[in-house]
């Protein structure tokens, strides 16, 4: 098919539909599989590597397994049907594989192998078919620079569909519905694309003889069996840089915008827009220029400047702009502002990476080569580079060397791609002189050296305060530690009054402020004082270690397990927060498990007397998996008789819908659940939920007598430091229970694995400050629970007075 031949508009539409379905699948499959293998960086690396590896394999195998005389559109239709069928089957297969995985998996290397096996079983069949679609259509174009470069337009159409898929899935399908409905939509797209492709094949002829004649040698010398290795190396380096940049720049922008599911969708959409637009431009250029290899070299050379531009934008410019919360209280307008900001900061480099693909195709085009094989090999090289970039950057480079050094490495890799492409250019165009080549290489080298020295470091103010960095510039105090881990960036600051702040996800997550200390210690002490015998305790989320420290000082506690997803956190808090967390990390009865807490609970055989959960804010992408009904059921199943689960629920930077979802979902599993409020200046900014296996029954006199025993001296001192001097003071924070709060929770959305509704609700309310009103509404239903708190004498009367005090 010539570049303007029959069927071209139809095929472009088919690729748009195919890209739409593919991105919906990717988001759905990753969301489902993270619930199985965990959401740690290691698990994400395994999933991403498998997904892209399948596409790489499919692009190479198509030409080897499918005869050249098969009608490309019928092959394309068969591939789309296979993708759709796999998508529907995975709705059933992933939960089944998940149950098998959790029954076998543990920790260490064997667990890593099993994660890879799960990803391979689930992702390889559909992604191999996805990777084969472009080479399949590649057999219907001329095996010439003009013909093969025209595939860049189809590739751009595929990416345009992917942009739509990222937005539709992230902002609508998964927010309003669930993974099942999203999968049905994607499968319907696949089937519609397959039907149109099959019908088009019936009316548009494909002459197999033309293909066979095209790939026969036309000279006495046999055609080369390998494509130019220089071009393949250049396009592989381009893929490496593109995916490395996506990893690094996503970390920057989720600090700047807030790490919500909507921010990830915006960043992905902008990146894809650049790739698609660049591919269209590159296809047009490749069809007109005589030296596409030189065009590829020029593109890669300009990538050096584009990466430098974006690094400066993300480090020096965007963080110092006023946060969107100060510009508007309309969350949808906030998303539009963030989209514009991301577009301005990110676009240049993806445009150049997108343009490089059709230029690489044109650079290796020959009339004596199977176009399907050419497309497959070039696409595979680009994908292999992308896999290396994504995995190395997320698993090693950023954590080992930092984002500044990683971006500098990207500059060097882009320059190397330009050098390689320049070296190839003379062999395909004799008019390029050695002097011109040397001049180009010298210019690229000089520009690269200068650019490498100008890449800014990650700003501490951005790590500490994220989207509010500009507002905190004059009040941030001394940010004396900034660290970049595999999963998150962490900072520690000290305010002029001596208050220590622990920063994660672009905000203060814990501190030595009185209100924060009260919440963290209340959470820890409730966890160990409410059960009859708390010997073994699981703490989900290390944070500053204050909650775990409060747990560890209880004399009855014999073993504390901390499940923390980021390896950097325990090291940091042991160094800077030992004075306020009772030096918990070095405590001999404390063991730290570096793992996603959900994955750890699902794969461990250990049982606990108490579990306390203090995860990141529910609007942070992935955190909602620790608030689902299924997760609470999992936690409940790991409790010993008489066990207790406690959960932190934030009221600040949240909405009534999000808070109600958290509370109602917890009470679905713990129907006898209780709520305690962390009050400060007459209102609460946090809640602590308490769930018990049996009906709760607490004798205040017995608990107070136990607290006064000599061995509880460290517990009493820890409580006294937050203004709590008795069990009456602690239990007097009672704010309600499940049975009394049914009217308040009547319209609450239950957060389940299949929809993770909470992360979408919380993401819409993370700029709101309605905590005081939420707590006042909740207290309207509070009354003294006669069957929960019992005792005799003055203490019970004091407790009743504290609880029945009217809300302010």
CATH architectural designation of the largest domain: 3-Layer(aba) Sandwich
The level 1 CATH classification of the largest domain is Alpha Beta
How does the major sheet shape up?
A: 8 strands, mixed
Shape: elongated
Radius of gyration (Å): 29 Å
**The CATH homologous superfamily of the largest domain:** Vaccinia Virus protein VP39
The CATH topology of the largest domain is what? Rossmann fold
Descriptive account of the structure:
With 808 residues, the chain is α/β, with parallel strands linked by helices. The protein has four domains: 1-206, Growth Hormone, Chain: A (Up-down Bundle), CATH 1.20.1250; 228-459, Growth Hormone, Chain: A; 460-494, no CATH class; 512-804, Vaccinia Virus protein VP39 (Rossmann fold, 3-Layer(aba) Sandwich), CATH 3.40.50.150. 62% of the residues lie in helices and 10% in strands. It has 30 helices and 14 strands. The strands form three sheets. An eight-stranded mixed beta sheet has the order 7-6-5-8-9-11-10-13, sandwiched between helices. The longest helix is centred in the middle third of the chain and has 58 residues, at 371-428. The radius of gyration is 29 Å and the shape is elongated. Mean pLDDT is 89; it is low at 208-225 and 427-431.
């Amino acid at each position: 098919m010539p570049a303007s031949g029959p069927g071209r508009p139809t095929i472009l539409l088919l690729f748009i539909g195919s890209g739409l379905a593919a991105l919906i699948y990717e988001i759905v499959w990753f969301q489902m599989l993270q619930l199985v293998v965990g959401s740690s960086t290691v698990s994400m690396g395994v999933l991403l590597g498998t997904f892209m590896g399948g596409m790489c394999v499919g692009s190479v195998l198509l030409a080897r397994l499918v005869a050249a005389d098969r009608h490309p559109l019928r092959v394309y239709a068969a591939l789309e049907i296979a993708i759709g069928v796999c998508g529907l089957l995975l709705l059933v297969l992933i939960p089944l594989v998940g149950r098998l995985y959790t029954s076998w998996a543990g920790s260490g290397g064997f667990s890593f192998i099993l994660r890879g096996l799960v990803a391979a079983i689930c992702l390889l069949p559909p992604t191999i078919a996805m990777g084969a679609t472009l080479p399949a259509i590649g057999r219907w174009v001329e095996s010439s620079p003009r013909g093969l470069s025209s595939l860049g337009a189809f590739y751009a159409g595929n990416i345009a569909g992917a942009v739509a898929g990222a937005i539709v899935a992230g902002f609508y399908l998964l927010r309003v519905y669930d993974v099942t409905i999203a999968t049905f939509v994607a499968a319907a797209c696949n089937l519609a694309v397959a039907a149109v492709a099959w019908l088009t094949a019936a009316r548009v002829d494909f002459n197999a003889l033309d293909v066979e004649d095209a790939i026969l040698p036309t000279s006495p010398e046999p055609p080369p069996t390998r494509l130019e290795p220089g071009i393949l190396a250049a396009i592989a380096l381009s893929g490496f840089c593109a995916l490395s940049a996506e990893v690094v720049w996503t970390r920057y922008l989720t600090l700047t915008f807030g790490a919500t599911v909507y921010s990830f969708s915006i960043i992905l959409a902008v990146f894809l827009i650049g790739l698609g637009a660049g591919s269209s431009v590159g296809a047009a250029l490749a069809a007109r220029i005589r030296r596409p290899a030189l065009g590829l070299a020029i593109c890669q050379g300009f990538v050096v400047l584009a990466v430098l531009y974006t690094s400066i934008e993300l480090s020096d410019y965007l963080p110092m702009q006023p946060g969107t919360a100060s510009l508007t209280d309309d969350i949808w307008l906030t998303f539009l502002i963030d989209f514009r900001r991301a577009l301005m900061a990110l676009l240049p480099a993806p445009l150049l990476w997108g343009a490089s693909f059709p230029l690489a195709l044109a650079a290796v085009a020959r009339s004596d080569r199977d176009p399907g094989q050419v497309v497959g090999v070039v696409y595979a090289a680009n994908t292999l580079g992308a896999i290396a970039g994504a995995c190395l950057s997320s698993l090693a480079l950023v954590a080992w060397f930092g984002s500044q050094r990683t971006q500098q490495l990207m500059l060097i890799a882009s320059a190397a791609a330009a050098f390689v492409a320049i070296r190839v250019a003379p062999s395909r165009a004799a008019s390029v002189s050695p002097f011109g080549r040397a001049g180009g290489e010298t210019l690229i080298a000089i520009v690269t050296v200068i650019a490498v020295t100008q890449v800014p470091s990650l700003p501490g103010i951005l790590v500490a305060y994220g989207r509010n960095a500009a507002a905190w510039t004059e009040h941030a105090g001394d940010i004396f530690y900034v660290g970049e881990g595999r999963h998150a960036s962490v900072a520690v600051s000290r305010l002029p009054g001596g208050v220590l702040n622990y920063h994660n996800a672009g905000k203060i997550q814990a501190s030595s402020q009185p209100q924060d200390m009260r919440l963290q210690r209340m959470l820890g002490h409730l966890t160990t004082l409410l059960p009859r015998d708390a010997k073994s305790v699981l703490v989900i989320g290390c944070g500053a270690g204050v909650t775990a420290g409060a747990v560890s000082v209880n004399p009855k506690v014999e073993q504390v397990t901390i499940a923390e997803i980021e390896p950097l956190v325990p090291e940091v808090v042991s160094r800077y927060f030992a004075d306020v967390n009772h030096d918990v990390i070095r405590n001999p009865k404390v063991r730290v498990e570096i793992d996603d807490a959900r994955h750890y609970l699902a794969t461990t055989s250990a049982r606990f007397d108490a579990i306390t959960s203090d995860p990141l804010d529910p609007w942070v992408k992935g955190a909602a998996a620790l608030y689902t009904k299924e997760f609470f059921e999992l936690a409940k199943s790991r409790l010993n008789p008489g066990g207790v689960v406690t959960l932190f629920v934030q009221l600040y930077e949240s909405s009534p819908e999000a808070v109600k979802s958290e509370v109602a979902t917890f009470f679905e599993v713990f129907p006898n659940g209780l709520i305690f409020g962390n009050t400060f200046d007459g209102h609460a900014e946090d809640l602590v939920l308490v769930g018990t296996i049996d009906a709760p029954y607490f004798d205040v006199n017995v608990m107070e007598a136990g607290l006064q025993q000599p061995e509880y001296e460290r517990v009493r001192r820890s409580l006294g430091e937050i203004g709590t001097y008795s069990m009456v003071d602690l239990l007097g924070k009672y704010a309600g229970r499940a049975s009394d709060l049914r009217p308040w929770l009547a319209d609450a959305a239950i957060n389940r694995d299949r929809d993770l509704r909470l992360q979408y609700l919380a993401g819409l309310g993370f700029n709101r400050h309605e905590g005081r009103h939420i707590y006042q509404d909740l207290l309207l239903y509070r009354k003294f629970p006669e069957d929960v708190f019992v005792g005799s004498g003055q203490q019970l009367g004091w407790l009743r007075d504290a609880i029945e005090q009217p809300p302010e």
